[in-house]
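A further point concerns the way the authors explain their paired sequence and structure data. The central task, working out the structure tokens from the amino acid sequence alone, is never made concrete. I therefore recommend that a typical entry be quoted early in the introduction. An entry of this sort, consisting of the sequence and the corresponding backbone structure tokens, reads as follows:
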Amino acid sequence: MLKSLSITNYALIQSLEMEPNKSLNMITGETGAGKSIMLGAVGLLLGNRADTKALLDIDKKCVVEGNFSIQDYGLEDFFKNEDLDFERESIIRREISPSGKSRAFINDTPVRLETLKELGKFLMDIHSQHDNLQIGEGEYQLGLVDAFSASKKEKSSYGLSFKIYQEKKKDLEKLSNEAFELKKEADFNKFQLEELSALRLTEGEQEELENEQEILENAEDIKSKIQEILSQLENEEFGGLKTLALANQGVQQLMRFAHKFEPYGERFKSVLIELKDVAASLEEEDALIEVDFEKLETVRERLSKIYHLQQKHGVDSVEELMKLERELADKVFQVENLDEALEKLQVEKDLAEKDLLEKGEVLSKRRVSAFQPFAKELSSLLQQLGMENAQIEFSQEKIQPTKNGLDKIDILFSANKGVKPQVLKQVASGGEFSRLIFAIKYIMADKMALPTLIFDEIDTGVSGEVALQMVRMMQDIAKKHQVICISHLPQVAAKGNQHYFVYKDNSSEKTISKIKLLQGEERILEIAKMIAGENPSNTAFENARELLER
């Protein structure tokens, strides 16, 4: 529900504020005074686009702000999904700067225009006699039928099945496309895999082979040098170990002379043990190393194959070659099992489609069951609105599955006897069409989320008892929903819980639009003027009072 509205620097409006009643609000005023301009400003709050032409003063920004009470609309999830703070009373604001830049805010948080437009669908429903395009759209008419038939459960079930079907269809298409590419590359991938698999690579192998090659290439020199070192260490007469042993004897004598030299004895002992260990290890290495030219050639050949494959595939290690081997193995496996996987997905897609069509049929039957009662109720309302010969029919055409079901539904309408009902897009706008739209809104008020309804001169082309019947229906709607009606008929304007008057103020250099809440004698005067013109007679005043008292 709209709690308050403020408009600054928009078209002819310099500054305007209003706090609509929660029930039925009437707005009247002379032609061109700015009634419809207000709707343009409200449209900005609902996400409509605007430009600098909307500015009254081109040097100042335009600001439109609406305070909405939304605690009963179930919008918590919407706010959560949009990462917005939910407030029981939320403020929507649009700003248009002189440069033409437009900004939108929900509770002072900047939002995209699309977000504002989506939220606006839950807050207000604006209808003008010149704005009948939406109701001529098939998806909108489908929504009306769904709302009337209370098919939310069936539509939700269908929607879930449609989502599953779309996923299965997408998976099948994706695998089919991948299969085509994989099959094109299958022979080449298989050849590369066999080439890699033949080597039976192991982690760390390259480093081991390179170390082995280094030893085999220098085996003779290594063995010769080891023997030379061992000779220098172990020679009976001049070997290092012999010399150190003699030196150690001298240290032992020093230790007997003084305790100070005992640490030297321990150090010499450690050196001798270490050197003996080195000599023993070198002897072991010498025994292990062989001069084997055949083995060297084998190592060189294997490394050559590894280097060749690394260069071919643009990698630097055996581990990367092994990773590539696994990836190729997966691709080859997929190709070898493609037909089975495709067949499995085809079965899943067919089952999902079967379920979808079954759910679609259930939804279609629910919709069709609403055609007659919906047409009957609409026709009855149109008769009350002075259209005794109005005819309403529904047409249904089966179509391929869409997110909305298997149906293309059209509302067919004729206002005249003997004229075959036609789809709404082909029906000319006018008083009859406006009454049809109003009757639909009346029915839908309790079936769809329409918190605030705005009617812009929807009573054009009607008068007398029809106008009274229309406003009675507005009063019925206003028992549960906020209604704002822009009217030119006194019998309609008199029935509002609150009455606003829009007028032009020519007291300054620029003509501006203003609005004021009429009460008491001011309202009687306005109704009288609507009946008899600028200078109403006593009779007009009496008629005005009578209308207000009814």
In short: The longest strand covers residues 391-402. The mean pLDDT is 87.
